[in-house]
Each structure stands twice: as C-alpha cells, then as structure tokens.
C-alpha cells in the first residue's frame, strides 16, 4: 500500500500506536498508547487542537485573534500548532521550573512565553494560572482557553483517545491507568470506556505529594512539591471527574524516573517522566495483585524523554536528587574498553558514558 500524502499537520493528531509492554511485563497483558507520536510530541495536541477548533466553530475567536493559556508546556505546544493552523497569536504563561526543552520549543513555534515564579500558588497573584486569567480579563482581545475547566478538553478524548483504545483492543479492557494533569485525558477516556463497559475500572496516578488521592478519599488536602512535570499541580482541576475514577495510586519521584530508564532499556520506549509515573503505578498494582496475569490493562504514555534533557536525561540532576539509575542490562564492556584505552594510551582522552 502506498503512503498517504497528508494535507497538513492536523491530520497527524491522534491515531497513535498502541504497543504491548511484553518485555517490561512478561506474562501480563499491559498495553500503552504512545502519545508522543502526536505532532508536538504529547497527548495534549488532541485537547489543544480540539478546544481551539470548537471556539472557532462557535464564533468565539477568529483568525488574527490572540489566545492565552496557563501551561506546563505540552498544552502550550499543541496550542502553538493550533495557532499556526488557524492564524492566531498565542501567549503561554508557564512556571519557572518547566523544562528548558519545552520553553525553547514554545518560543521556536512562535509563542510569547511569560515565565512565573513556581513558588507562588498557581491560582494566586503572580501564579501562572492567575496571570493567564488576569490578562484575559483585562484585555478583551485575549481569549483564555482554560484547559482546567473547559469541557472540550475531556470531550476531545471522548471522541478520539477513548474510541481508539476501545477499537484497537477490541474492547478487551479491565483496567485503565492514567496520570492526572487537568484530568482531561483520564475523565474523557474513562467516560467513553465505562459507557462501553461499566465493569472497566479506572485508576488515576499521581506523584507522592499530589493532592488527588486525598481529594478522592475526602481527606484534608496538603500539596508537597514533586519532580513530575505537568501532573498533580497544587489545585484540583475541574476536569478531574471523581465519579469516573475508582482509585488513586501514588508513585515517588525516584521510582518514576527509574521506570523511564527501565522502559528505555527494556522496551526501547523513550518516555517522559509522567509516563514513568504511570509505569511505576502499574508495577505497584502488580505487586499488590490488583493486576493479575489475566487482567487486561491499558494506559497512555503522555510524552517523550526528549522533553526532559535538563532532568531525566541529565546525570547531574540524578546525582543532585540522589536517584539511582537502573544498571545496564548487558555485560562487561567497561572492563575491556578501559583495558583497550590503556593499551592504546588514550585513557585520558576518551571517556565512557553509560
Ligand atoms: C507530560 C504530561 N503528562 C500527563 C498530562 C496529563 O494530561 P491531562 O491534562 O489530560 O490530565 C499532561 C498534561 O499536560 C502532560 O503534559
């Protein structure tokens, strides 16, 4: 079959591959939807494009207008794409510990990026969410997207991600496992899957320090900062629909980071840190026997390791946080390589990195 010629980048949104994680979880039926196959390399392209398209269809914005969004980067990148497609200007408000890779991509794709201090609560004066709202309130030509309560965010997943998962796995699903940022992905996919089969369970994943587990169980909420970008911020997103969730599992930062490296080395899947958190939760659920050999599990892996060159891919970051990187799977190359370097008199000139 020939390769179809596309008419534009929007045709590459969604229809991402689903892969069985048979090397990472031998003997289990665990499937992952690789969302970094979207145009700006994350799941957020789906919601970003859909939210803007809907605003245009409703006549709320038109070509030449300006949109603004509070983003930890990935929604912003999707909105850059949507802005290019629909001829809009885009302002992104981000906090100052967003990865440099995302900031550079946002700038390169034409966004105006405003960096806010991360020590301020997101919704209070100077915080990145507050600023996006305040600018839109001040200037009528600026339109706030508001992924945290915009119903088009989960709806994007009701119409795309959910059906794609259901169809690819022929409905053979017992458990859906997913992280929570705005809650758009988990609420939308869970809505669709539970409508198809109410026995499907949905487990939300967040880093230790996140507030969704306490929120879910009605406990007092106390946010503690963590290192997993784009998920479990310091406020509850309206688009997280508790009614569609059956449990919330927490994973510590070091485990999430280690799972990323393990996935790279066992499956050759270069996943980002929220995806590492998801894999950590699946491991935990296997240990706790919530996931059995016969359980059919599906998750989405939201973005790619390439967006985290200053943390996940940076050895110094691992050392600073005292995280231990999983060892290499293969043998004793270092021993004979060093021997060869010494014999050749090049030990000082060359360096082994692994
Ligand atoms: C890397 C990453 N993982 C997970 C999520 C969570 O997605 P959602 O906002 O649909 O909950 C996001 C959202 O921005 C993200 O960027």
Write the layout of secondary structure elements.
Elements: E1 18-20, E2 29-34, H1 44-57, E3 66-70, H2 74-86, E4 89-95, H3 100-108, E5 112-116, H4 128-138, E6 142-144, H5 152-159, H6 161-168, E7 175-179, H7 184-196, E8 201-207, H8 212-217, E9 247-251, H9 253-267, H10 273-287, E10 296-301, H11 315-320, H12 333-344
Parallel strand pairs: 2-10, 3-4, 3-6, 4-5, 7-8, 7-10, 8-9
Antiparallel strand pairs: 1-2
3D architecture notes:
- The protein is built from twelve helices and ten strands.
- The chain has 354 residues and is an alpha/beta fold.
- The relative contact order is 0.13.
- The protein starts with 17 loop residues before the first strand and ends in a 10-residue tail after the last helix.
- The strands form two sheets. A six-stranded mixed beta sheet has the order 1-2-10-7-8-9. It has a four-stranded parallel beta sheet with strand order 5-4-3-6, sandwiched between helices.
- It folds into two domains: 176 residues, Rossmann fold (3-Layer(aba) Sandwich); 101 residues, Rossmann fold.
- Helix 1 packs across helix 2.
- Bound molecules: pyridoxal-5'-phosphate.
- The site of pyridoxal-5'-phosphate has 20 residues, from helix 2 and helix 7.
């Amino acid at each position: 079959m020939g390769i179809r010629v596309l008419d534009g980048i929007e045709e590459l949104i969604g229809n991402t591959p689903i892969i069985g994680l048979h090397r990472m979880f031998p003997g289990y039926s665990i499937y992952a939807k690789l969302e970094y196959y979207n145009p700006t390399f994350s799941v957020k392209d789906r919601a970003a494009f859909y939210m803007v398209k809907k605003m245009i269809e409703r006549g709320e914005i038109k070509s030449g207008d300006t949109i603004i969004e509070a983003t930890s980067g990935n929604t912003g990148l999707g909105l850059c794409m949507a802005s290019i497609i629909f001829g809009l200007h885009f302002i992104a408000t981000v906090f100052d510990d967003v990865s440099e890779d995302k900031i550079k991509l946002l700038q390169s794709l034409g966004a105006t990026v405003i960096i806010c201090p991360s020590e301020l609560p997101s919704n209070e004066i100077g915080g990145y969410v507050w600023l996006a709202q305040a600018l839109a309130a001040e200037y009528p030509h600026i339109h706030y997207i508001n992924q945290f309560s915009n119903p088009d965010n989960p709806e994007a997943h009701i119409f795309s991600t959910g059906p794609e998962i259901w169809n690819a796995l022929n409905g053979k699903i017992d458990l859906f496992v997913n992280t929570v940022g705005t809650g758009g992905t988990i609420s939308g996919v869970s809505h669709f899957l539970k409508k198809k089969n109410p026995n499907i369970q949905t487990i939300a994943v967040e880093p230790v320090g996140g507030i969704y587990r306490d929120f879910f169980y009605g406990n007092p909420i106390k946010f503690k900062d963590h290192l997993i970008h784009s998920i479990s911020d310091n406020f509850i997103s309206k688009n997280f629909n508790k009614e569609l969730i059956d449990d919330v599992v927490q994973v510590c930062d070091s485990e999430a980071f280690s799972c990323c490296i393990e996935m790279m080395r066992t499956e050759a899947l270069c996943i980002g840190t929220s995806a590492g958190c998801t894999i950590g939760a699946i491991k935990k659920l296997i240990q706790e026997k919530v996931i059995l050999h016969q359980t059919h599990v599906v998750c989405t892996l939201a973005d790619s390791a390439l967006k985290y060159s200053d943390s996940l891919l940076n050895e110094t970051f691992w050392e600073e946080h005292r995280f231990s990187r999983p060892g290499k799977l293969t043998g004793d190359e270092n021993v004979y390589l060093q021997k060869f370097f010494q014999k050749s008199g090049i030990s000082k000139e060359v360096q082994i990195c692994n």
